[in-house]
Design a protein that fits this description.
There is one protein chain. 48% of the residues lie in helices and 16% in strands. It is α/β, with parallel strands linked by helices. The chain has 2 domains: 202 residues, NAD(P)-binding Rossmann-like Domain (Rossmann fold), CATH 3.40.50; 31 residues, no CATH class. The protein has a 7-stranded parallel β-sheet with strand order 3-2-1-4-5-6-7, sandwiched between helices. 44% of the residues are buried.
Length: 251
């Protein structure tokens, strides 16, 4: 896969699979606009440039529509166009339906659903007037099979799978492909914190590993390769797909 001359915008690019995807795009010749809530995106930009690539950082919360517009505007103003959008930004909050406060529900939906709508809105407005493009959303394998104590997170990611299909139908005629990946349990700082908070980190880690037929957790780079493929010219006949990359957990 080559992304020479492509311009990519990535939300949630400060850590994990978002960072790995940004670096891979840069290595393959793309110019990358990296967004993150914290300043960790600046380090991603440094790592992209270390590969010989070109990147710029836009800090902020995708729950704010103005910030989402700024991400897309920055790609166009800095690099002249936008070819690919990847939506990695997300938050995870625990709780079953009977436990959640309205503020928690609103927080998760604001980032995981509204944030994806907002940034997609401005990407599509540009792409449909400039020959098309590719959009990849990061959903989750949990919305394919369910998981305990993650009700609002699971609901938010299920919404993204539904949105992916709706967008694919709405914009296929404008040469805009829209796909999602559905990661299984992937090593990340938030995952490690979840293990620590459980009171039995090794026991919880072992249970997560046991749930995956391949017998291990995923590495962020494995999700990044899926993102790149879904956005690539090699996947030009693929749209509306929610692709599990989950070590078999959804079988």
């Amino acid at each position: 896969m080559s992304f020479e001359g492509k311009v990519v915008a990535i939300t949630g690019g400060g850590v994990g699979m978002g960072r790995e995807a940004a670096i891979l795009y840069a290595k393959q010749g793309a110019k990358v606009v990296v967004n993150s809530l914290s300043d960790s995106g600046a380090e991603t930009v440094r790592l992209c440039k270390e590969t010989g690539g070109e990147a710029i950082f836009v800090q902020g919360n995708v729950a704010e529509e103005a910030l989402c517009k700024k991400i897309i505007d920055t790609a166009i103003e800095k690099y002249g166009k936008l070819d690919i959008l990847v939506t990695c930004a997300g938050v995870v909050r625990p709780g079953s339906v009977d436990q959640l406060e309205e503020a928690t529900i609103d927080e998760v939906l604001a980032v995981n659903v509204k944030g994806v709508f907002f940034v997609s809105k401005y990407a599509v407005q540009y792409m449909k007037e400039h020959g098309g493009g590719s959009i990849v959303h990061v959903a989750s394998a949990c919305c394919l099979y369910g998981v305990k104590n993650r009700s609002i997170y699971t609901a938010s990611k299920g919404a993204i799978v539904a949105l992916t299909r709706a967008m694919a139908m709405d914009h296929a005629a404008q040469n805009i492909r829209v796909n999602a990946i559905c990661p299984g349990a992937t090593v990340s700082p938030s995952m490690e914190q979840r293990f620590r908070d459980s009171g039995d980190p090794e026991g919880m880690r072992a249970s997560f590993i046991a749930a995956h037929p391949v017998g291990r957790l995923a590495q962020p780079i494995e999700m990044a390769y899926g993102i790149l493929y879904a956005s690539s010219d090699e996947a030009s006949f693929m749209t509306g797909v929610a692709l599990p990359i989950d070590g078999g957990v959804s079988l």
